[in-house]
Amino acid sequence: MLYENVLLKTFNQKYSELLIRQENLRKEIATMIYAFYTNNKPLINYYLKKYMLDSGVHDLQVWDAKIGRHKTIPDESNPVGMFTEKTVNIMPKIHIDLVGKVLDLCCSIYNAGADRYLLNENSEINQDLTEKLMDLYESMDFQKKIIDIYKQGYLFNTVLVQPVWRNDKVELDIITPNFCSVESYDNDNSRAKAVMISKSVGNDDKIVYWSDTEHYYVDENGNKEAVTDGEESNGMINPYGKLQFAVLRFNESSDFWGEPQQDLIENNIWYDVREMNSYFIEMFQGLGVGLGVNLSKNGTISLSPNTMILVDNVRAEDQTPSINFSSTGAPLSEIRSNLEYFYKLIGNSKGLSSQSMSNEVTDQSGVAKAYDSAEMQIKKDSHKIIMKAFETDLYEKIAMVYNYHVKETFTDKVSFKIDIVEDEPQINVSEEISIAEFKLNSNMVSILDLMIKDNPDLTTEEAILRLQENKAINEKYLLTVKTDNGKAEDKDGSDTGEDTDSGN
Question: Over the stretch 336-352, which tens digit does the pLDDT of each residue have?
Fold first, then answer.
């Protein structure tokens, strides 16, 4: 009730009871997504069990842009309960981190690194401030942090990143939708007017309120309490004079948060359930089951891999006691094949190639991989635009917090610039040779270009000299043939005086 009461009392102009229900549903979905992102096994098992047992039809509050409000529709996406609770309880809980794999492949623009600069008004690099920024970013472990931000932003569609002054330095807090509510501007739903964050303070759960001018705790009754940070306190005033939250958003929507990658989570659940079912079939139907006839007078019938079916008191005159083994002939190979197909299909839905989702080792060339991932490349190009804009916004928020606490200025006369290094496909030696030969035969490059590419420090004159020296050496020592008597000859037929047979 804490969140509901605070929302109603704090944002009472924006949040009706209907919107509160919608906000709770949004947080429930975000909580499920967060569980799979953090690989929280107890929560994941809860959702798996819920999925297998759920047989109800649920109401969803969906925003309808035509009528300008939320409307209630039945959600029929949940299947009728597939298993009994007894069966679910004995089934092994199997979880394949498909979400993690998809995120690793989809959110990969930083794989080759990135270069960040601060530019003066004349677009020249400000070396002093750039070095200071790099030191600051290193203290925050920024490169690792930005990848985490990137993945969560892609998964949730929208996350907030808050630079905070903690332990005498700037740190970055990633705020996901399950821990946060936002009041947006009436004329711009994409911009935050106020932010409320769930936070544990000591043994208490509190709501932290931020706006451009205010900053305080809110209790469940809507009462305000000043925030103290050690010995420093600003009462209920935001010391920075504006919200210090950078917003990472991948797709615009009619509301602040937009639509998360809920389908990826649901597909992961479905895949896990099918994996468990496959294992269950293998354990209980894939093995031969003993069939005992007339072995005892009081036999019981049970079914499991290590028990026998007992059929007693058979009256047929010719039916003697016997033991046989029967198998259901479950199509395990077909089930496995279907699972693999579904696994790749999930990746395909996110622009990933079947090859990238395969666990098989193939000799696919780097060039082939590049063409195979053409759709993903388009997505990467879009991600670069989004992340560059976000990093610019994030730098401004970091600089604002740093300047306030350290009293050193990242002047507003400099601008932030980031270059994301291209992650070129890896090619093997034979491919490299073929490409070089093609470029030479097509007069796209010269032999000097290839030499300088392998030796970037060479000038053109030095490359020419090196080429002439190599040519002379190769003609004298490399182009030899072995004669019948084991002697090496130059290509002109003269004896080199060397025996090509070693050891004799």
Answer: 777 776 677 777 777 67
